[in-house]
UniProtKB/TrEMBL annotation:
Pfam families: ABC2_membrane_2. One of its GO terms (cellular component) is plasma membrane. It comes from the Bacteria. The chain crosses the membrane at residues 20-40, 60-84, 111-136, 151-170, 177-198, 245-270. It comes from Winogradskyella jejuensis. Keywords: Membrane, Transmembrane, Transmembrane helix. One of its GO terms (molecular function) is ABC-type transporter activity. This is ABC-2 family transporter protein.
């Protein structure tokens, strides 16, 4: 496994664009550190400091940071599809196979690299979240600090699943731009599935239940938006604001299932394709 990761890291390191995108994909999530120190002056009447609003208290901070950081995954998604596009355009795929790398090892090298970067991103976000929380949070008891740390697991699974989808599209289309465009097409398809389910069941709730099994939607549902939860903490008497924001094993299992399918399909495409 280490040998395969080293092989991919060497390829990425030699590509200037990949190095820049990887750097950006790791740095941008840390903008949450900047947000925590922002002070907004409202025409001299009062100053609003985000860090003092309670949104960086434990345990809610695990929810907020992982949700916000997940939106920066598109930068590394470009790296993933570029890994495949460059293999075909530079003929390195064929050369790797000639040099003794099996097709299974080739796909595994890509998957291991995805897991490596996803794990690194998760650890960095976890460290940043912990530091911000310890500075701003009113609660420092261990039981509260680590109460919702499962959002980090959801963040990791979300990254691996999304990048595995990008890998599959990259293998399917061989071109980075087309692979990224297919993400948008898939987004549209999932909404068409929703409306189809709505016509069948005549229920928006059941239609959303069907949509929740689709790849992009299942990844999104791993970490629900935290903003409604923030409002709930300010207005606890508003019962209508309540919603289920927890990380559920069933949702994690769905994304893991899609991840396994995408990796398997990528391998089958490579195995059957005439290089």
């Amino acid at each position: 496994m280490i040998r395969l990761i080293q092989l991919e890291l060497q390829k990425l390191w030699l590509n200037r664009t990949s190095k820049i995108l990887i750097f950006v994909s790791f740095i941008l999530p840390f903008t949450v550190l900047v947000l925590s120190s922002i002070k907004i002056n409202f025409f001299g009447f009062f100053t609003l400091e985000l860090g003092e609003l309670g949104i960086f208290n434990f345990p809610i901070i695990w929810h907020i940071t992982t949700f916000c950081a997940s939106y920066f995954k598109f930068f590394f998604a470009i790296v993933v599809v570029s890994m495949i596009g460059n293999e075909y355009s530079n003929k390195t795929l064929k050369q790797n196979l000639i040099d003794g790398l099996s097709k299974k090892e080739f796909i595994l090298s890509k998957f291991y690299t995805i897991v490596f970067f996803s794990l690194a991103a998760t650890l960095l976000i976890g460290l940043a979240t912990f530091c911000i929380g310890m500075y701003y949070s009113s609660y420092t008891e261990a039981t509260i600090v680590f109460r919702e740390v499962e959002f980090l697991l959801a963040y990791f699974v979300k990254l691996v699943g999304f990048f595995s989808l990008c890998l599959f599209f990259g293998m399917l289309l061989k071109r980075s731009a087309f692979a990224l465009a297919f993400l948008f097409i898939l987004y549209i398809v999932e909404w068409l599935v929703f409306w189809g389910a709505y016509e069948i069941f005549d229920s928006a709730d059941k239609a959303f239940q069907v949509k929740n099994f689709m790849p992009l939607e299942s990844m999104y549902k791993l970490i629900d938006q935290p903003f409604q939860r923030v409002v709930m903490t300010k207005f606890p008497d508003k019962a209508e604001l309540g919603y289920d924001y927890a990380v559920h094993f069933s949702e994690v299992a769905i994304v893991i299932g899609w991840t396994a399918l995408f990796i398997f399909l990528s391998y089958r495409l490579l195995k059957k394709r005439d290089l």
